[in-house]
UniProtKB/TrEMBL annotation:
Cross-referenced Pfam families: MMR_HSR1, MnmE_helical, TrmE_N
Domain TrmE-type G per the UniProt entry, residue ranges: 220-374
Keyword check for Cytoplasm: yes
Organism this protein belongs to: Malonomonas rubra DSM 5091
UniProt subunit comment: Homodimer. Heterotetramer of two MnmE and two MnmG subunits.
Functional note: Exhibits a very high intrinsic GTPase hydrolysis rate. Involved in the addition of a carboxymethylaminomethyl (cmnm) group at the wobble position (U34) of certain tRNAs, forming tRNA-cmnm(5)s(2)U34.
Enzyme class: hydrolase
Residues given in the record as GTP binding sites: 230-235, 249-255, 274-277
GO CC term, one of those recorded: cytosol
Protein name: tRNA modification GTPase MnmE
Cofactor binding remark: Binds 1 potassium ion per subunit.
Any GO molecular function: GTP binding
UniProt cross-references to Gene3D superfamilies, sorted A to Z: P-loop containing nucleotide triphosphate hydrolases, Probable tRNA modification gtpase trme, domain 1, tRNA modification GTPase MnmE domain 2
Enzyme Commission number: 3.6.-.-
Length: 453
């Protein structure tokens, strides 16, 4: 990306609407506005952060649209460059005409994520904040919005900065003593290094422990409904969705393929997956459905194993149970409104009883699902949370190097080894903030953004 170019892109989504916004950023932003904007009030002097009404015209002074325009002067803008926004009618033809007008004037269409990349390159955001901008745009629930917004506002960044500052002070201390090999590091300095590193390790472990809940909040969870035929899987799916999405009959084997639907459950975007009944069958189509269901079990965030409580447990129930033994599983005893016949004393997973017909037990099941998926978040929803795999991997690597520092201190190893591990720790922390991130990683991150952001 050439950061000296003046770039342009629509900032609003493609489609018709009341208003569309076209954003311009770069050194020619204000000149670009003045070139084709005819304000209602003549001879105005543009002030920053003020809206102006007028008409946008083309090279022949033909009207393109009646608009509101705002000029924002650097560095107090999203990109820290001069920015202009053109608020026009939400017609895609109007937006296209405005873009073509400024392409002819020499402006360049922004690359994916280029506005946010400029905010990062100009120091307004660090890399973790920039990534959170994309998370905020794609947030599907209020919980995921709050998590992304906390990271945009710098909650994670401040935590990483704190780790970095403390470790850099230790690095300076260690490297200063390396320059005096004839002298030993004083005992009080060794103890200070150990205390600081141990404290950072403890805080990083706490942060790492939030990753599963944070990822579920940001990306959603996959919940698999399994069990023998006619255990109530499709009925439960329909009940949770609030609509008749899956076909429900008394005929075993009605559901033969995976049926996937999205809902919000306990504030989490959830993919509910209804599966074929788990049983042995001579029907090749049904057996393919069973195979797909079993394959999915190992990848689900949570499995709901349904067992009909009004019938005796049979080989199909045992087969289903064994298929889920190593997966995170809730056993759901269905048809609690009927006489209980099933003996579920063999169950070691959490067990819940429900009735699709009366709704009994459904609220308790939903609450249990929420607590399982968001345990860390519910316990401390104001704390910093991880949601990016990249951040998690970097912190795990940081942790390993800091643990090596403690080992080196314990064994009385050379200060050079300690300094080496601290430098590596800072390198990994820098990958989160963007200080040490490679260009290829940066390109991969910003390529996932939309053009106008």
């Amino acid at each position: 990306m050439n950061l000296s170019d003046t770039i342009i892109a629509p900032a609003t989504a493609v489609g018709e609407g009341g208003i569309a916004v076209v954003r311009i950023s770069g050194p020619r932003a204000l000149d670009s506005l003045k070139k084709y904007f005819r304000p209602t009030t003549h001879n105005i002097k543009f002030s920053s952060q003020r809206l102006y009404h007028g008409t946008l015209v083309d090279q022949d002074e033909q009207h393109i649209d009646e608009i509101m325009a705002v000029y924002m002067s650097a560095p107090h803008t999203y990109t820290c460059d001069d920015v202009v926004e053109i608020h026009c009618h939400g017609s895609q033809q109007v937006v296209k005409s405005i873009l073509n007008l400024y392409f002819d004037y020499g402006l360049r269409l922004a690359d994916a994520g280029e506005f946010t990349y400029r905010a990062f390159a100009n120091g307004r955001l660090d890399l973790s904040q920039a990534e959170a901008v994309a998370r905020l745009i794609h947030a599907k629930t209020d919980s995921s919005r709050k998590l992304a917004l906390s990271q945009v506002e710098g909650q994670l960044s401040r935590c990483i900065d704190d780790f970095t500052e403390r470790l850099r002070k230790i690095q300076i201390l260690v490297e200063a003593w390396i320059d005096f090999p004839e002298e030993e590091l004083p005992r009080e300095d060794l103890e200070h290094i150990e205390r600081t590193v141990s404290s950072v390790i403890e805080e990083i472990n706490t942060l790492i422990d939030t990753f599963n809940s944070g990822k579920v909040l940001a990306d959603g969870a996959s919940i698999l409904l399994v069990g023998r035929p006619n255990a109530g899987k499709s009925s439960l799916l329909n009940k949770l969705l609030g609509e008749e999405r899956a076909i429900v009959t008394d005929i075993p084997g009605t559901t033969r393929d995976l049926l996937e639907e999205g809902i919000t459950l306990a504030g989490v975007p959830v993919r509910l997956v209804d599966t074929a009944g788990l049983r042995q069958s001579d029907d090749p189509v049904e057996m393919e459905g069973v195979k797909r269901a079993i394959d999915k079990i190992g990848h689900a965030d949570l499995v709901l194993l349904l067992i009909d409580g009004s019938k005796e447990v049979d080989d199909q129930d045992i087969y289903s149970y064994r298929s889920c033994e190593t997966a995170p599983t809730f056993v759901v005893e269905t048809k609690s409104d009927l006489e209980k016949i099933a003996d579920l004393s063999f169950v070691t997973h959490p067990l819940y009883s429900i009735s699709i017909k009366t709704g009994e037990g459904l609220d308790e099941l939903k609450e249990a699902i929420g607590e399982y998926l968001l345990g860390d978040y519910i316990a401390a929803n104001e704390s910093v949370m991880l949601s990016e795999q990249r951040h998690y991997d970097s912190l795990v690597s940081t942790l390993k190097n800091l643990q090596n520092v403690l080992i080196a201190l314990c064994e009385g190893q050379s200060l050079e080894f300690i300094a080496f591990d601290i430098r590596d720790s800072l390198q990994y922390l820098g990958q989160i903030s963007g200080e040490t991130t490679t260009d290829s990683v940066l390109s991969g991150i910003f390529s996932q953004f939309c053009i106008g952001k």
